[in-house]
Amino acid sequence: MSEVMTAPEPVAAVTRKCVFEEVFDANFIELIALAPRNPHVRALILKLTGKLPPPECATFAQLKDWVELNCEKRARPFASGAGQHSQEGGIVVNVDFSETEYGRANYSVRRHGSESFRIGAEDLMTMVRTAIDDGDGLDEVVEAVAGKIDDDAWSQCDPSMDDSGDHDYSEHEESETGDSTTECSRNDIRAAVLAFVRERHPELAAEL
Question: Distances in Å between the alpha carbon of 117 and those of 29, 49, 73?
Fold first, then answer.
């Protein structure tokens, strides 16, 4: 009796969550290729994706596959002008980003970029009502918004960072791996908060 031949089960396609080149810029991809095992490189991957590559990902190809299979490209917030509130509620503030990368070859390079950051209506009203309940005013709401930007902008935004100059090969402390800062206009925040409250909750405007 002849055996019945059955077709092999199709191999399920691997679902990739992102495209490597859309997660990192060309300069950082080059750095990953040069030093895929470098702990500072891996720390930057953690910072940009929210996930730390496992030790077994030791080559550029392995890191590339791991990122595309496990990481998602952060969604950019709704684009709008500085200090304008969107149709979806809340306010949008333009944030200036800057960072210094320190390399293991004793170099540093400064980068700058900007991106819009949205404070949702619910979060903003929590700050407004907290300030009013505490007997505070608009200044405290502005500082609360600025504090949220300082805490969350790096993880929620994806600014395009441009090098501001040549690599500096001066000495720096061995423990230094880089620093990052954000800056935003308090005047923009103040104007956006006032416009939002006057439009959505005019009964509270007089209390700020």
Answer: 25, 18, 16
